[in-house]
Every structure is written in C-alpha cells, then in structure tokens.
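Below is how a single chain appears once it has passed through the pipeline. First comes the sequence as given, then the structure the pipeline wrote out for it. We keep one example in the README because the format questions we get most often are answered faster by looking than by reading.
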Amino acid sequence: MKENNEILPNDAFDIPWKDILEAFFQQFLAFFLPVAYENIDWKRGFEFLDKELSRITRESKIGDRRMDKLVKVWRCDGVELWVLIHIEIQGNRKTNFAEGMYIYHYRAYDLYRVPVVGLAILADEELGWRPSHFSYDLWGTKQSYHFTSVKLLDYPETELEQSHNPFAIVTLAHLHAKKTKHRSEDRYREKWRLIRKLYQSDFNRQQVISLFRFIDWVLHLPEELDNRLNAEIVAYEENQKMPYISSIERLGEKRGEKRGEKKGEKKGEAKMLMRQLQRRFGTVPDWASDKIAKAKQPSLEEWGLRFVDAQSLDDIFSEKA
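Resulting structure:
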C-alpha cells in the first residue's frame, strides 16, 4: 500500500466542525469557553441565528469566512446575549484574521445592539500564530478589540484522553489527522482506537453516531483500510451487542460502491466541493461550476487537496498549481 505518495482526500474540517458544533453546542462552550458556559441560563435554550449571520456576511465583504456561528443565548441574570463564534479551520497563518473578527463584531453590534462575544478556534499547525486582538491608534483616536483565541495544539493528549466532553474526542481526531497525513496505517490505528473509545464512553447512540461521522470525515482512509475498518466495526458491535455505527447509512453506501456505483461517488464529491467553495468564497462563478460538473474523479480529488491551503479559486483550478 502506498504511503508517502498516496493522494488522500483533503483534510478540510469546516463542514464536520459545523455539524458537530450544532449537535453539541452546550458541551462546545463548556470545553472551549467555560466562563460563558457557567453564566448562560441553559434552561432557556439557545438559537442559531443563521439568517442574521448571512446578513452580516453579505454586508461585511471580508472574504473567506468558512465557519462562523452566531448564537443567541440568555445570561443567568436574565439579560439576552448574542454570542458570535468564529471557528477558523485554515491550516496556514492568515494576516487579516483578527481584522475579520473585529469586522464581524462591530457589524453584529451595529445591526442588533447587543453584546457580542468573540471566540476563535485555531486549528492550524503554527505554534506561534495566536491572533487575539485588533487595534489601531491614530491622532488621538484609539480602537482596540480583544477576543478569546483557543489553540487546539495546546491541549495535551493525556488530558484529552481523560475528558468526558465530546469535544475532547473532536480535538483528538483533529490532532491525529494533522499528525498522520500520508501515514495511512498510523491513521487507521488512531481512528479505530477513537471509535472504540466512543463505545466505552457514556454517550448515547445518537451521540456516538454524530461523533463517528466527525471522526470518519476528518480521519479519512484509503478504500482498502476503510473496508478493513468497516469489518472491525461490524465484528466489534456484534460482540458488544451495540449496533450503532454498522447500522447507519454509511456502510450501506460502501457496499453500494463495491457494486460499481462510481457515478454516484463522483457526483457526491462534486457536490461536496461546491459546498466547500461556497462556504469559503461565497457565490461560485459559472466557469468554476462548469469545470466541476465536467471534471473526472482524479481532478475532483486534486482540487479537494488544493482547497485546504488555497487563497482563491485560481489557486484551486489553475493548471500550473
């Protein structure tokens, strides 16, 4: 099996992060911003303000905003509070990141006149990159905006292994994905270990499935190892009498692929690539949509790899890339 030269699917984390955050928002704040978690009245619930966020995005014109969530919650003292959560999934340093956080902050406040709390989850691999404020000082006018910045690399794996919060597993999966790029056997072992950890936790069936989908996406394996993992899952669930993962749609899809449903696989990759481009760059121009619609499987895979570090559509589709 190829290791170093193997073209693996891209390690873009924006979509799985979005899904897992919405499934476990309360636990998300408990893990990454405990001061907020402790002062929110969870009995009153919370609300994702996607329409309001899209309005801010449309009017701010600040480019790449891959994973943002605007959430309305209530404080324990009864005061309504909106929380702006920005999750940055980009693998490289981004020079205007802090400015983008500031723009979102003042746009949200200007439109809705409620307190806005900024939280950035930095999932990159650069230890020294830790944006946490934006400021300027000119001719007696000063502006300074500070937000909470969390670096996934700072979490010790030993502590993550002992935590019962689902975002400990999310963080472990992300860290293992970074460490095992192009080392398929190592990735297989870490992925199977994390999946077994799901069964040994106190998570219910739906929580196990949600976390599995995140792990499965982030720790993507070549087909041969993926088939081996499926067999391990089936055998383990039969032994433990816990038919959680083996009964979900994913394994049925894998069996369908073996029967030759390659057309559906290509269509799925094209649809996913379009979804990722829209999240990062906004409206996808017709020329890019046409290229994706007419592309063959190898091209879609290559563009998916380029997507991780691309700063523009040209970076993805350029023949010289």
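Confidence is low (pLDDT under 50) at residues 1-11.

See the next section for the split statistics.
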